[in-house]
Amino acid sequence: MRIVRVSRPLSRSLPGLQINRVSCGFSTSSLARTAKDAVIEVSKTRNIGIIAHIDAGKTTTTERMLYYSGHTRRIGNVDEGSTVTDFLPAERARGVTIQSATISLHWPPVRENDQNIQSTKTSDLAPHNINLIDTPGHADFTFEVLRSLRILDGAVCILDGVAGVEAQTEKVWYQAAKYKIPKIIYINKLDRDGATFGATVKQIASRLHTWPAVCQVPWWEGGRRQFIGVGDAVGLRAIRWAGGGDGKSFEITQLNKLPKSEAAFIDEIKNARRALVELLSENDDQMVEKYLEAEEDHLAIRSEDVVASLRRCVLNPVANIVPIFAGASFRNIGVQLLLDAVVQLLPNPADAPDPELNLGGVEGTLSRLMNGDMLSTMSSHNSKVAKHKRHANALVQNLETCALAFKVVHDPRRGALVYVRVYSGIITPRSLLFNTNLQISERAPQLLKMYASDSVQIDAIPAGQIGVIPGLKHTRTGDTLISYIGANQKSGPPAPLNTLQLRPIEVPPAVFFSSVEPHSLGEEKDVRTALDLLIREDPSLQVVDDEESGQTLLSGMGEFHLEIAIDRLVNDLKAKASMGRIEIAYRESILQASQPETNAFDREQGGKQGRASCIATVEPLSEDYVPELDEYGYSAYEDGNRVTITLSSPPDPSSELGAWDGELPSHLSVPVIHNAVKNGALAALSRGINYAFQLHNTHVFINLNPRNHLFGAETTPQALSSAARLATKAALKATALKHGSALMELVMNVTVSVDEASLGAVVNDLSSSRGGHIMSLDDADVTSGPTVNSTNEDLPRIDISKVYAPPDPFGSSSQTQQLGIATDSSRQRNITARVPLKEMVGYLKHLRSLTGGRGTFVMSADKFERVVGQREKVLLKELRGY
Ligand SMILES: Nc1nc2c(ncn2[C@@H]2O[C@H](COP(=O)(O)OP(=O)(O)OP(=O)(O)O)[C@@H](O)[C@H]2O)c(=O)[nH]1
Asked: Which residue ranges traverse the bilayer (predicted)?
């Protein structure tokens, strides 16, 4: 039996790397250690997210990771509001994660001078740099999760061992699968009464449609209820943590040294090893070879070979395998082994799939761009780009850096902090970065690496790394930043590179809103600045000025989302404003196409004469419209509406980006014109003619003939926006007044989890009182049987009878399930339904009362649908108040 005590890492300095302490909270030694990130190689980097349902224990687990890696000197507690990652006042007050915190750590810790220090690694691991993102679990913050997912290379999914696979986990799981992110699962809270590891493993197969590769089995003290450690099926050993400690003391025992009283536990570890080798062999030929070399003895295969095979399978999406680990973070059990697994099994940035991008409306990948393929393909469609083909190689070679700003946070002391993930090249201080979304250049004044709310200054952010640029004035969450050798200071890199966008994501509709009323006229400017900051941080919030009512409206994705945004506006950003009631936003849709409307704008704007003109036509899109990005030359699809812009002499429907080959005024480029016109058209769609709601399913066509519609220096981008707004408004007015418009409401996809006893009452309430349509009723606890209850035909079907899971000796409901005795009233059922959003407001409270507090639900926006018949009359009466 080996006793290991992990003590604090010793301090060490790093010659040649300048480190400036930016804020307090760290010792010099930890800063020196962490600053090594700047020079750490890509193969030793992991950009990892932690995803889960609310309350599964993400923050609790992250706190342990920080502590064991030597980054903090004490373990923060969610329940006491003292965690490092949940640092916003609103997060600490509510005990939930709202923002994705980004934090870097080393695993194993850098500590070569200390002879006593060892970690629970399963092999001799060298220190790796882990950039960790703790994401929110609440459904209202799904967008925050999505925008983090797209810059991650791997994810740890944490499950609550009592609740099993919950609805929000499923949702985020499939999003991660969409971005092809390899994952490992950690089943947490195994110390709690009713925890069922085996049943949760089966649920992973049935509900997440993936093959669980059980790497650990829980260790219950002498077969009694107390959870004390884990059996490692990979390393064929058992790890027991000293009870009540900080988790740094543990014993590692090889299977043959375990006492006889643990015979059942030893057998289970062996069963798990056999099942693991079988599962890996089905997907990995090298494992089959190792198995044959070991003379078909599952237990004789070296643990290093099992790890290598697991890694190959995790990185291969076709294998569809997820390694499973066990623990109880709150009791400080299991977290070091989970960190080992992150390093051993999850990909480094070079292993991750090729990042997707969009270049002038054409979809591609970064490596296709860098090897010149993309530009060559585009040239066959577009005469203007053909000119660039000759220079394609030179163009790409001059592309120095490509990075994505995935998050902007306003820090009271340092201003806006822009978090970036660099995909190619390197960002150094003073780099000139061209923002392809805003078409402006900004210089990076300095670079930081973040440790939750603390930071250190670094010399560079190389490809594969995550870092922070403070002091950028304009960059928003989601913007792509590139640097290009010889770029024009003003207009940036040459076309089409100036349109390059990395992994664009669609912003979901903001459906709750509240008015924002500055306390006095004098406060108006400060309130506007605070609102601008808020939407720069979170693009799923929207600010709309309603010209007619004179009100400023702030909208968000959910009641809670908006509540937190208001809290941040008033308490953190100190905006002196009052907020109105939180209400639901409806939409309005036109019924018929308009005639083309020409508008000439000619007015003084900000002390300068502005002059521009264009032609607008609007037409309704079908409710099931799916945008096809390469259908038109330039087209934007935002918040359910589409804007198509042609720069040509009408009528010329085949016009494409760059088809205009004539002269443009020197201060205007094609992307600048597109951006200005698009913003003008979208502004006109923010208020409908008949009901004053934002337009939906509307396609705006703007035609602009530079010869007739541009007027030299007088045609500023602002003048173009105004012309597009007025022309679109005129077209909308013409059709809405003549043909009327439709009221639309958001319908949600709702999944309610209840026990069998409450099923009838909940179904009845959803379908009769809330106007919902029940889509399916499923068994949430599928832990046996030959096939799964797949509600989604596209997902792989897992034969549950072939899934290995250790028995659950104590879990209340699972115990009976293992024996095949279903106690009907406690059986968990999932109801999926489509319900109008309006009817779901305040639903949680109602559900709790219907289910004795046990029911839970998640929902996500499906689509806006036209309201008809009696419901339309009732809603309009409610909205108008008469
Ligand atoms: N018994 C037990 N409780 C735990 C464990 N891990 C976390 N908890 C508790 O579960 C609750 C939620 O933990 P968090 O770490 O805040 O969960 P989270 O997933 O970060 O939650 P959100 O940020 O709200 O999504 C807290 O009260 C924790 O103390 C565990 O291993 N055992």
From this structure: none
